[in-house]
Structure formats: C-alpha cells, structure tokens
Amino acid sequence: MLDEKLLSIHQATVLQQWTLKQAIEGVARAKLGAISVWRDKLKEIGAAEAARLLDGHGVKATGLSFAGLVTPPDKQAAAKARDDVRRAFDEAAAIKAPAVVFVAGGVDPGEKDVKAARGRALEALAGLVPHARAAGVMIALEPLHPMICATRSVLSTVKLANEWCDALGAEDAVGIALDTYAVWWDPDLEQGIARAGRRICAFHLSDWLVDTQDLRFDRGMMGDGVIDIPGIRRMVETAGYKGYREVEIFSARNWWKRDPDEVVRTVKERYQTAV
What we know:
Layout: E1 7-10, H1 20-29, E2 34-38, H2 39-45, H3 47-57, E3 60-68, H4 75-94, E4 99-103, H5 114-135, E5 138-141, H6 158-168, E6 174-179, H7 180-183, H8 189-196, E7 200-205, H9 229-238, E8 245-247, H10 260-273
Parallel strand pairs: 1-2, 1-8, 2-3, 3-4, 4-5, 5-6, 6-7, 7-8
C-alpha cells in the first residue's frame, strides 16, 4: 500500500465546490494531512487567514498554484507579470508552501515567435530567482502539454525544463513540477525524469480520458484513462523524489459536479488502486 501521508489533495480537484476554508476542513475530515493550494482561492481569504486555518486543522500546504505568464513582449505587461510572481513567492512563504508552480506563458499572437517567448521566459526566471531564494520557496517549472503552448506555456517538455534549470544554475531555488497529464505522451519521458533527478519538487496526478471533451478541463480520475500512472510514479521515485503525490483533476464534465466529500473519498481509493 502507498503511504497516505504522502497524498495531497490539489485544490483544483474540488475547485468549483469548495472555498479554501472548506477544502482545508474537507481534507482534515478525510483524515488527510496535505493540500496544494489554488492561488485564486487563497486570495479570497488572504495568506494570513489561510495559514491560520492550515495550522488549526493540522494540514500542510504542499504547494501553491500558480504564477507566471511572463512571456508578453510588451515590457509593461511583462513587468507586471513578474511582480505578480514575486507576490506568489511571498504568499507561498506565508502559508509554508515549499514551492510555487510556474507556468511560463504562451506565444504572442502578433509576434508568432515561440523561440522569442521562450527566451523572455528564461530571462524573467533569472530575475526572479533572488526573490524566490529570499522567500525560501522553490520555483517549480511545470512542463505543460503542447496543446496549450500558444495560450499557457511555451515550456512543453521535461527535456526543456532540464535545459532551463541548467541555464539558470540555481538548484536551491528552481526545480521541476511533473504532471502525469502533461508529460505522459513524451517518448523521452524516462530519460527526462532520470536527468531531472532531485530537481523534481512536485508531482501531480490525473488521467487522460480517451474521449476527452476539453483539453484543459476534462481530466480523469486515476485509473479512468490511458496513462500508466504507476509506471511514471516509479520513474519519479527512482530519480530520487520522495515528496507528496498531489492529485490535480480539472473536471468540468464530471468531478466538479460531484459532492466534494465523495470526490476526496474516490481519490483516496484510487490512490491505492491506480497509483
């Protein structure tokens, strides 16, 4: 059996049903001890109140999602985005979350230059490292599926995430977040994970449905799709990762419509049978 102490409920899984307060209470009610916090929900009550609730219920924040979108060619817009990322670092520190998931940003429709967008993202990261280091949080670079390269992230592969880590040379402040939904398709995944090694600072779980109806908001519960989740988990653990397994299921069609306590119960069951 997998250790339930390493199971974290990512707030995205119950995003439409619960406030952050309700989610913390629900996690505690399920006798779990960890939650990954969705930033928009955090803003509703503030980091100080969130920290009080987490401490009061004995629940640990395993991460904060998300910050980034730093690729605009417009200098003013890019500076604003970088300032928001710095605020996210401070928020994570306030709730004792060890990492902030970083979503790079997409391609400007007018420019249509993915290489330039990647260059700006890497340059922005270099400038953000000192703040992350001072806050004591990791920047968790999350490679996302190429389907959203245009709109959300020009960082699409584990290979590229490793290359960015190499370029930044800040192992104490920059790591990699691996999401099964985003990377399962990659023919070089095993090599990329092995190379990442102890850079891996977050591990997200969900499944890819064969009949998916929305590429962002129709994720499956573990075991309902085509991803070899146990296989990827073993790769990650072989690489040296010993941290939390965060269940992150964006599901407008299914799980967001269900009773959230039922969703958490199902997560606990599938954690043992499909992870």
